[in-house]
Amino acid sequence: MAEVANELFRERCQACHGQVAPLSDLEVQSLLPQLHSEWVLRQPVLRRRLTTQNFAIAFAMATEVALLAEREGHHPDMRLGWGYLEIELTTHQAGGLTRNDFVMAAKVDRLAKRGEIAPGPG
Hints:
single chain; alpha+beta; five-stranded antiparallel sheet
């Protein structure tokens, strides 16, 4: 993960007021390399699948992400099952990706780095 991702990690998600413009393709492409390489871009969504050792670890990770999302006021879509947690980020109000999505992704990267997570398929 690039040093700039540490800057993203330190940021706070900003509340969306009124009309929120999504990031341009150029802005998205400049922020994407600052995240873990397992994040996949499928406009208008960032997706990462975390592979864990079992269901309990995937559930615990989902709980940590949910608590983080509450603190940040920016909530991902999540799917979990035995040995995996999928996280999808987008800003529905903007109809695409905003800086908040990249900030949350960097924070998820930090959680995953210290968790019991195996490398997962993209």
